[in-house]
């Protein structure tokens, strides 16, 4: 029960911070990160380093 309450309030704090951060910044860095990460995943899959 205590863990549920603590996780609820920590989630409230994090969501509040994230909404504030997003309102002050953009997602360009995150977008480039996701594109590069996606390319890395595709290359590792295509070369057989990772099997899904």
UniProtKB/TrEMBL annotation:
Residue ranges spanning the membrane: these are 6-23, 30-50
Q: Which reaction does it catalyse?
A: di-trans,octa-cis-undecaprenyl diphosphate + H2O = di-trans,octa-cis-undecaprenyl phosphate + phosphate + H(+)
Question: InterPro entries this protein is in?
Answer: UppP
Q: What is its EC number?
A: 3.6.1.27
What GO terms are given for molecular function? undecaprenyl-diphosphatase activity
Which EC class heads this enzyme's classification?
Answer: hydrolase
Q: Where in the cell is it found?
A: Cell membrane
Note the topology in the membrane. Answer: Multi-pass membrane protein
Keywords attached to this Swiss-Prot or TrEMBL record, sorted alphabetically, are: Cell membrane, Hydrolase, Membrane, Transmembrane, Transmembrane helix
- Gene Ontology CC terms: plasma membrane
**Which protein family is named in the record?**
Belongs to the UppP family.
Q: What is this protein called?
A: Undecaprenyl-diphosphatase
């Amino acid at each position: 029960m205590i863990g549920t309450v603590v996780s609820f309030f920590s989630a409230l704090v994090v969501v509040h911070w994230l909404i504030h951060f997003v309102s002050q910044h953009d997602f360009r860095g995150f977008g480039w990160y996701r594109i590069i990460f996606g390319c890395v995943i595709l290359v590792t899959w295509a070369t057989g380093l990772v099997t899904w």
